[in-house]
Design goal:
CATH superfamily of the largest domain: Histidine kinase-like ATPase, C-terminal domain
CATH topology of the largest domain: Heat Shock Protein 90
Helix content: 55-70%
Number of domains: 2
Shape: rod-shaped
Largest sheet: 5 strands, mixed
Number of strands: 5
Strand content: 5-15%
Number of helices: 11
CATH architecture of the largest domain: 2-Layer Sandwich
C-alpha cells in the first residue's frame, strides 16, 4: 500500500518535479561554495549559475527523456569541475537524481552504460581540467560513490516494482483460473444432471409405454394379467416421480431440509429393474461371473444407469423378446455385457442406419458415463443377430469421479 506522500507525488507529478529542480538548483549553488582548505575558490559566478540553471531545467524533462537528462546534467557537472569546483554530493545532486530516474525507467544495462559514461566524463574533467588541482581521491572516489548510489537504488526500485507486478499478475491469473474452473465444474454438473434426467425420463416413459400397450393388448383375453400389468404401471410412474424428485434435489442447497434422502440407485436394485421390464414383455436374464465386490458410489450408479439405458433401448427399438445382462468381476474391473435377440437393433434402425452403428444419443450418454469413472464402452451388432453393449468399469477408478450427492 502506497503512503500518502507517494500518492501525492503520483497525483502531482509536475509540482514535484518543479520543486525537485528548484531544490537541486539551490543545492548545486551551495555545493560550489565548498572547497578544500588552502586550495582557493574559482572566480566564475556567472558560468556557475548558468550551469546550475541548465542542470535544474533539464530535470523538468527527466520522466519523458531520462537519457538526455543524464547527458545534460553530466555535462553541467563536468563543466563545474572544469571551472575548479569540487565534485561534492550537493553539486552532483541533479545528476544523481537523473541517474536514479534512468535506472528506474530503463534496464540495468542502459543504467550501467550511462553511469560509466558520466563517471568517465567527470573524472576526466576533474583530473585534467581542474585549475585548482584538488586531491585525486576527491576527483575520483567521491564522484564514483555519489553516482553508484542512485544507480543501485534505482535498480532495486525497478526490480521491486517488477516483482510486485509479477505477483499481481500471478494473483490475477489464479483468480481467473479459479473462475474458469468454477464455470467448468458448473457446466459438468449441469451435464451430469441433464444426463440423469434423460436416463430417468427415457427409461420410465419407455417402460410405461410398453406396459400400457401390453395391458391394452391383454385387456380382453387375459384381464387378470392386464390388471397386474396396470398395477406395475402405477409402480413405474411412481418410481419415475421419485427418481425425478431425487435428481431435482441435486439442485437444492445443501442445508435445504426438503431435500430427499434416498440413496442413489446401484446394481443392488438390478432385480427391481429387470422385473419392471418383465412386466412390459421383455424377459431379462442376469448372470454373474466372479465374486461380486463392493463398488464406489460413482461406479455403482454408472453401472446401473448403463444397464438401464441399454435395456430401455432394447425395449424401444430391438423388437426383442429377451435380453441378457452379464456381470463379470475381474481383478481390477467390472465388465457388463447387455445383449438382445432382436432384429431392429438396440438403438433403432437396421445395420445400415447410422443410429445402429454406435453413434446414437443413447450411446453417447453411456460412453460419457463410462469415461467419467475411467471406463470404456463398445456397442455394435452381433454376427448371430441382435445388438450388444459392453462396458468396462474400473473397480478402483483411475480418474477423479464426480461424487454423486445423496438425493
Amino acid at each position: 500500500m502506497s503512503s500518502p506522500l507517494q500518492r501525492y507525488a503520483d497525483d502531482h507529478v509536475r509540482t514535484v518535479d518543479t520543486m525537485s529542480a528548484a531544490l537541486l538548483f539551490a543545492a548545486f549553488l551551495f555545493g560550489t561554495e565548498i572547497s578544500v582548505p588552502g586550495s582557493g575558490r574559482p572566480d566564475a559566478v556567472g558560468p556557475t549559475i548558468a550551469l546550475a540553471a541548465v542542470s535544474a531545467a533539464a530535470l523538468l524533462r527527466q520522466r519523458g527523456r531520462p537519457r538526455a537528462t543524464v547527458a545534460v546534467t553530466a555535462l553541467c557537472a563536468a563543466g563545474a569541475a572544469a571551472l575548479g569546483h569540487l565534485l561534492t554530493p550537493l553539486l552532483l545532486g541533479p545528476l544523481m537524481l537523473a541517474l536514479y530516474r534512468l535506472a528506474v525507467a530503463r534496464d540495468r544495462r542502459t543504467a550501467r552504460a550511462f553511469f560509466c559514461a558520466a563517471l568517465t566524463l567527470l573524472v576526466t574533467s576533474a583530473l585534467f581540467l581542474d585549475p585548482l588541482d584538488h586531491p585525486w581521491q576527491l576527483d575520483t572516489l567521491s564522484p564514483a560513490a555519489c553516482l553508484l548510489l542512485p544507480v543501485a537504488a534505482g535498480n532495486a526500485t525497478r526490480l521491486r516494482g517488477a516483482y510486485l507486478e509479477a505477483v499481481q499478475a500471478r494473483a490475477e491469473y489464479a483468480e481467473r483460473s479459479r473462475e474458469e474452473e468454477a464455470r467448468h465444474r458448473v457446466a459438468e454438473e449441469r451435464m451430469r444432471i441433464a444426463r440423469e434426467l434423460h436416463d430417468v425420463v427415457a427409461h420410465h416413459l419407455a417402460l410405461a409405454n410398453a406396459q400400457a400397450g401390453t395391458a391394452a393388448h391383454l385387456s380382453r383375453t387375459h384381464p387378470a394379467q392386464s390388471r397386474r400389468i396396470l398395477t406395475d404401471l402405477a409402480g413405474t410412474t411412481s418410481s419415475a416421480l421419485r427418481e425425478m424428485k431425487a435428481t431435482g434435489g441435486l439442485l437444492r442447497q445443501a442445508d435445504d431440509p426438503a431435500a430427499p434422502t434416498a440413496p442413489s440407485p446401484g446394481l443392488g436394485r438390478l432385480s427391481e429393474l429387470t422385473a419392471a421390464f418383465g412386466s412390459a414383455g421383455l424377459v431379462v436374464h442376469v448372470s454373474t461371473e466372479g465374486a461380486p465386490r463392493p463398488l464406489s458410489p460413482g461406479v455403482d450408479l454408472t453401472a446401473y444407469r448403463i444397464v438401464q439405458e441399454a435395456l430401455t433401448n432394447v425395449a424401444k427399438h430391438a423388437s426383442a423378446e429377451a435380453a441378457r445382462v452379464r456381470l463379470r468381476y475381474g481383478q481390477n474391473q467390472l465388465t457388463i455385457t447387455v445383449t438382445d435377440n432382436g432384429t431392429g437393433g438396440a438403438f433403432g434402425g437396421t445395420a445400415t442406419t447410422p443410429t445402429s452403428s454406435g453413434h446414437g444419443l443413447g450411446l453417447i450418454g453411456m460412453r460419457e458415463r463410462a469415461r467419467s469413472v475411467g471406463g470404456a464402452l463398445q456397442a455394435g451388432h452381433r454376427l448371430e443377430g441382435g445388438f450388444e453393449v459392453t462396458t468396462r468399469l474400473p473397480l478402483h477408478p483411475t480418474t477423479v469421479e464426480h461424487e454423486e450427492r445423496t438425493p
